[in-house]
Amino acid sequence: MSLFITFEGGEGCGKSFQAEALHGRLCQEGIPSILTHEPGGTPLGNELCRILKWNENLDITPMAELLLFNASRSQLVDKVIKFNLEQGKVVICDRFTDSTYVYQGYGRGLDKELIRNINDIATQGLRPDLTILLDLPVEMGFARRNNNLQDRFEKVEMTFHERVHQGYLELAAEQPERFLVINANQTKAKIADLIWRKVNELLHLRA
pTM above the 0.90 mark? Predict the structure, then answer.
């Protein structure tokens, strides 16, 4: 029954809400599952999250950023994701390696093959069974955000986020068997229903 599902998308796309909604639905159906997130999900990861997203006094280079995200990821894979998959649970993760690939690759301009290699080291080759990409135009996503509380990435220029958006679309086009791309400019209920249909289909295939 084990299934590894990740949620991806740009700022304001609603992925965290939908990840929580899916976890709630699985719990209602009596299906063992956990919800985690990146960066974070472990005590070490939470400290790295604070540094990466909220510490504005540090000048973090793109390469250091890449390595810190993957340090958090390595700990999460070892301590949380692999263990729960081995227990036969559905593991839902709000962001995973695809975020690093597009934010540090398309966004920051780091070598994409290098990013893939470092991601693979951190995850020990673990890949999601399903990645749900909530696709939303950048301007619309930022219009949904609380401008009074912006992390380091939300404060980066809009062209950075346009590159990230393009990166997600290209990545999904390269791996259509893994990605479920959903137009995020729909009602939350409609999006949740589309996600559940796909997840339920995979669960029945694994039964």
Answer: yes
